[in-house]
User: Which sequence fits this backbone?
């Protein structure tokens, strides 16, 4: 592509500060931005980013996105709002309706075929009809996906892959902390969070697809890994296990002291059995951290040879944004439809501006 990539930013919160800066520094032009927050609407994106100067593009109300995208026809829209396909369906729909390629940070958007198949199929058809591509990316795309697939390629035999990723619920607000059961007694946790732990594979999948059970981030990730590695899942279950600490912990997010023995959060454990005999067991641990704890990501491979890799203290927000921006050329070059990143080439560091990697 001889001209610069023209981008729109949908959602101008914390993530967008990095997303828009990375877009600009990779040679894109940001031609539109949208948000729902009255305190942000009308601001120049230079102010949102913290550039100290105006860039000539003001944040529009999200309700005007359809009209703006229709008029400007950007090459790509970056969606950074909430986490589920239900949350971002409107954003993806307005992009697809206007033939605008779109990529989202929403965790479920990475591989929604096994959690929201009806919505994904609807969006897939709309994108194909309007010759654009929809997808999702972020930190899990690389550190729970591509990294695992790449390491697997160095092994002779695999019988099991085990992944553990942890994060501090204090960093993500009260809704997420409460959703992880932080502050509940063991009895309360069992009644409110763990009540679906005994469901079999078919039962849990049905409840997830019906919206009765919230899937763990690893629910999508196991699906992504199976697809990428050519594995055939025959069973997938999810259990929510309370995490505890032997000392009282203060939670500023919850505004309370989490007593020793009560839930500081939970580990959502997703286990996938495959026809090829490889078991994938992944844990997503969200909890109120003790002073000595920190974010980490660990993957272990069992078979021949056996290997474990650790990523400690990952800069999750920045890694999410950089990985997503680096996905944009492959997104635009892809066939139309809802195309998950397991179907795209592995990300590579972009030495040149974005437009120099695009085929049209």
Assistant:
């Amino acid at each position: 592509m001889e001209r610069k990539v023209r981008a729109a930013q949908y959602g101008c919160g914390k993530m967008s500060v990095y997303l828009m800066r990375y877009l600009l520094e990779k040679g894109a032009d940001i031609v539109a931005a949208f948000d729902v927050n009255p305190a942000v609407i009308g601001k120049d994106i230079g102010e949102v980013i913290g550039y100290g100067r105006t860039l000539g593009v003001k944040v529009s109300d999200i309700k005007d996105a359809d009209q703006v995208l229709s008029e400007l026809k950007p090459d790509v829209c970056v969606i950074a709002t909430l986490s589920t396909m239900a949350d971002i369906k409107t954003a993806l729909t307005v992009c697809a309706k206007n033939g605008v390629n779109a990529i989202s940070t929403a965790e479920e958007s990475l591989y929604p075929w096994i959690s929201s198949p009806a919505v994904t199929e609807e969006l897939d058809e709309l994108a194909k009809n309007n010759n654009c591509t929809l997808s999702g990316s972020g930190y899990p795309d690389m550190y729970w996906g591509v990294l695992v697939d790449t390491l697997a390629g160095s092994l002779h035999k695999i019988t099991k892959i085990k992944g553990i990723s942890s994060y501090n619920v204090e960093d993500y607000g009260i809704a997420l902390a409460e959703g992880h059961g932080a502050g509940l007694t063991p009895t309360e946790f069992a009644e409110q969070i763990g009540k679906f732990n005994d469901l079999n594979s078919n039962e849990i999948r049905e409840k997830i697809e019906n919206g009765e059970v919230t899937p763990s981030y690893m629910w999508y990730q196991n699906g992504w890994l199976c697809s990428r590695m050519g594995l055939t899942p025959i069973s997938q279950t999810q259990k929510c296990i309370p995490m505890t600490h032997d000392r009282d912990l203060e939670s500023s997010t919850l505004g309370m002291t989490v007593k020793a023995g009560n839930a500081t959060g939970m580990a959502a454990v997703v286990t996938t059995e495959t026809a090829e005999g490889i078991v994938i067991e992944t844990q997503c641990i969200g909890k109120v951290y003790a002073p000595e704890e920190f974010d980490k990501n660990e993957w272990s491979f069992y078979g021949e040879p056996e290997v474990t890799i650790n990523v400690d203290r990952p800069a999750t927000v920045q890694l999410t944004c950089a990985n997503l921006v680096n996905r944009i050329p492959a997104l635009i070059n892809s066939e139309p439809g809802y195309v998950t990143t397991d179907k795209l080439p592995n990300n590579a560091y972009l030495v040149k501006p974005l437009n120099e990697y695009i085929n049209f």
Notes: Residues 4 and 300 are 42 Å apart (CA to CA).
